[in-house]
Amino acid sequence: MQATTHETLARRVRGTVLDGQDPQAAAEVAAFNRAVTHHPAVVVAARDADDVAEAVRYAAAQGLPVAVQATGHGASRPVDAGLLVTTRAMQGVHIDPVARRARVEAGVRWRSVIDAAAPHGLAPLSGSSSGVGVVGYTTGGGMGHLARRHGFAADLVRSVDLVTADGARRTVSPDSDPDLFWAVRGGQSAFGLVTALEFDLVPVPEFAGGAMIFRADDAPRVLHAWSAWAPTLPEEVTTSVAILRLPAVPEVPAPLRGVVSLAVRFSHHGPAERVAGLVAPMRRVATPVLDSIGPMPYAAVDAIHMDPTDPMPAVARGGLLGSLPEAAVETLLTVAGPGVDVPLAVVELRLMGGALGRPAPVPNAVAGREGAFSVSVVAPAPPPLAEVASALAGGVVEALAPWSTGTTLVNFGGDRSTLARAWAPDVLARLRAVKAAVDPGDVFGGPLGTPDAVPAAVSPLVPAGAR
Ligand SMILES: Cc1cc2nc3c(=O)[nH]c(=O)nc-3n(C[C@H](O)[C@H](O)[C@H](O)COP(=O)(O)OP(=O)(O)OC[C@H]3O[C@@H](n4cnc5c(N)ncnc54)[C@H](O)[C@@H]3O)c2cc1C
Predict the structure, then answer these.
(1) Greater confidence, 452 or 143?
(2) Can you give the pLDDT at residue 462?
(3) Whose CA is nearest to atom 32 of ligand 1?
(4) Which of 101, 222, 365, 448 is 20 to 30 A from 116, comparing alpha carbons?
């Protein structure tokens, strides 16, 4: 009976329909974050927006919840029931160089947009890794290398094609549906399944970036210096600092391999001759073991953070700080500094402010504009250690609570159980009102429909073998 129903769906779509038990399903739903293994009842590998609409209508008729995955970079809990739409095959990218605009389908990663925009001297508001999916990143806000000058990626979105819980395909823009357009830019997947995004690109005639890597011994001095230097920088600069404990494996760049180090990341969107003067104060603090800061094409931005490109199991936790006084830096060093033996791969602070703190041209639901700094912590989380990793990562964020805004960025928030706290209360109330109007049956789930409810049985912290 179940197989027959799936066959009916399979006949209606151009993509592939897989029963969750089908051996091919595991490969189709594999997430970049290997800490999470999905076990949905049915998988739809969608080829186009019509496939997505068919999948949503089918799920509604069957009473199945719907989830979506592009790359699995944002996977934080397993999908253990219902229908999972994968968008990997939806790879259309169209650049309009005259209007300086991109239109991309749901499965596109930033790399494709960066490469298609670069010949026109344009760039998207992409982030630290071009392997991340455009739609998940942008609907969660999206804070990247040009953020302090141009804001969150969601701020430049012009229109959103999505399939709502009734199975309808809609193109949502400020004129067509202002409330839904507001909500979907920042409220992520709670309102529908996005099939395409249209957004502005920015001209990047000159760009510089790179990282300075410092030894563990120098880390406390450099971290204190960074906290004083970063807020003095103009909006053309983005910078972050990270305490790194990366494994001794060939994939890790040599100066970071198997040691504790501190990375100061820097990017500048403007004339190259200003870079040396801007960076000089940090270069004077200590001698870096590597200093790659200099002019680069925007297309080379992945070299700034050197994020992992291969899938791995990880747990992430995040928060926002309203300020970063010396006491906060000392606290961070006490709980996660080089003198502490703790298995945290990345403990990162990003400077915010500038355009990130201002409303979008068309206001949206992006969380976190009040932050002066973001904090995010990533711990390796092979299944037996996932619970410990989560507690350690969360502990660092909690230690900084005296300086916290109480909110977080959706993209760095970590587990969905805490995500409802990402938004300020008035924004959350409006998001819930829009959610109630467009998805009254909570087909798409998400942090808005069921506040703070995370059944232990579906927690990402439950080792896969224990389920
Ligand atoms: C290495 C790495 C670097 C990162 N760097 C940054 C950064 O610099 N700045 C930043 O802001 N974030 C960053 N992130 C966080 C990233 O933006 C989020 O994890 C984002 O959700 C990933 O989107 P995805 O599509 O790649 O992942 P997925 O796991 O495929 O999707 C994540 C979520 O996005 C939503 N989603 C995906 N596709 C759709 C769709 N078609 N319709 C509706 N909802 C959808 C769903 O809620 C889904 O669960 C980084 C993450 C990693 C792992």
Answers:
(1) 143
(2) 25
(3) 74
(4) 365
Task: For residues 155 and 161, give the distance between their C-alpha atoms in angstroms, rounded to a whole number.
Answer: 16
In the predicted model, is pLDDT for residue 448 greater than 90?
no
Q: Token digits for 348?
A: 């990162």
CB 13 within 8 A of CB 51: yes
pLDDT of residue 189: 85
70 pocket-lining for ligand 1 (C-beta < 6 Å): yes
Using the mean position of ligand 1's atoms as its centre, give its distance from the Cα of residue 7 in Å: 31
Q: Give the residue whose CA is nearest to atom 19 of ligand 1.
A: 74
User: What percentage of residues in the chain have a pLDDT greater than 90?
Assistant: 86
Dihedral, CA of residue 445, residue 446, residue 452 and residue 457, to nearest 10: 60
| Percent helix, strand and coil across the chain, each to the nearest 5 | 35, 25, 40
Report whether residue 127 contacts ligand 1, using a CB cutoff of 6 Å: yes
Kind and range of the H or E element at 252? none
Q: Which two tokens stand for residue 291?
A: 């200093």
* CB distance 138 to ligand 1 below 6 Å: no
Atom of ligand 1 nearest to the CA of 140: 21
Question: Is residue 122 within 8 Å of residue 100, measured between CB atoms?
Answer: yes
Domains of the chain: 2-89 (3.30.43.10), 207-420 (3.40.462.20)
Residue 269 pLDDT > 50, yes or no?
yes
Does 106 sit in the ligand 1 pocket, CB within 6 Å? Answer: yes
Mean of pLDDT values over 207-219: 97
From 44, 76, 112, 132, mutation site for ligand 1 pocket: most ligand atoms within 8 A of C-beta: 132
Q: Give the Å distances, CA to CA, from 19 to 9, 109, 267, 445.
A: 11, 26, 46, 21
**Centroid of ligand 1 to alpha carbon of 74 (angstroms):** 4
Gap from CA of 281 to ligand 1 centroid (Å)? 34
132 in ligand 1 pocket by Cβ < 6 Å?
A: yes
Categorize the per-residue pLDDT at 170 as very low, low, confident or very high, splitting at 50, 70 and 90.
very high
Q: What are the tens digits of pLDDT across the range 89-118?
A: 999 999 999 999 999 999 999 999 999 999
Q: For all residues of the chain together, what is the average pLDDT?
A: 92
- One DSSP character per residue, 49-91 reads HHHHHHHHHHHHHHT--EEEESSSTT--S---SSEEEE-TT--
Can you give the pLDDT at residue 372?
A: 98
Residue 449's pLDDT band (cuts 50, 70, 90): low
Query: Does residue 71's CB lie within 6 angstroms of at least one atom of ligand 1?
Result: yes
Total residue length of the chain: 467
